[in-house]
Amino acid sequence: MGRTARVLGLMAGVAAAAAAVAVAPVVRRQMRAVxxxxxxxxxxxxxxxxxxxSRSLPLMRRGRIAPVDxxxxxxxxxxxxxxxGLAGVEVRVYDPAGRDDASPALLFIHGGxxxxxxxxxxxxxxxxxxxxxxxxxxxxxxxxSPEHPFPAAHxxxxxxxxxxxxxxxxxxxxxxxxxxxxxxxxxxxxxGLVQRAVDEGIPVxxxxxxxxxxxxxxxxxxxxxxxxNAVWTPRSNRFGWTSYLGHSxxxxxxxxxxxxxxxxxxxxxPPTWIGxxxxxLFHDEDVVYAERLSAEGILCELLVVPGMFHAAQRFATQAxxxxxxxxxxxxxxxxxxxxxxx
Length: 342
What we know:
By secondary structure, the chain is of the alpha/beta class. The protein has helices at 3-36, 57-60, 123-133, 152-166, 168-171, 185-200, 218-225, 234-245, 283-295, 312-315, 320-337; strands at residues 49-50, 73-79, 90-96, 103-109, 136-141, 173-183, 206-210, 231-232, 272-277, 300-305. Helix 9 links the parallel strand 9 and strand 10.
């Protein structure tokens, strides 16, 4: 071997060793995080971060949603009439067979970190809710960030909520029994929407928040801690909040309703259910929000599932704790809407 080759080989070895040293702390943090996950949730997704940024965003949006059989639930996809300068907002309406007149209604808001996702991905879940609860379910196709930062998605969801109330007779629903539900970023949108609904006198009987994305300041805390979280990571969280807010997260002030956890007073909000896993990136912010609601005298039920990562029940569907989480979520909605579960 010539001298040049030996030098190049030595340099490559040094570079590899340096890379290993640099990566080692990250790997150790990841292994500690995985160890904290309950074994029943240790499916492949538990080992892989959902890392999303401007480069990976187009790929994340490329997947196609396969149609599903909704059985005896009728699905109508409808554009809402223009209102307040908004046009083109679309909703998916799930109407179960045999639904009673003046039934409750549920407005559902899908997740996706404010930057990905579409309402059609939850067709099966929304239809199941409609069937099990005997309730009209409406899912809103809100605009995504970063192309449409706040208040675009918030305004779209508000438009859908107003439409539900304004068309209660035609939809055969009881406007006093309308609940708002959301998952992940959809839970954050739901919480902000309910805050605005209370301020504007729009009745909401119950809010149902599934591991909601409530506080942009979690970005800074997580980065300082240097932790790692399955599925939705601190890096993805920064991208999601930055895209939605239109600026870096954690600034001293934000627009009203953009960051639900920033609201100073939570009095007057409706009864609430919040469910989250103990190793979810959103665990701390969700617990704090639940505690603040309870401190205001608002009936708030908090469910924390030990060792469950973000959206784990969607991946480890056969895990006993995942089934218990789904059942608790359904039961909470039934109580909030005043119906029996089928």
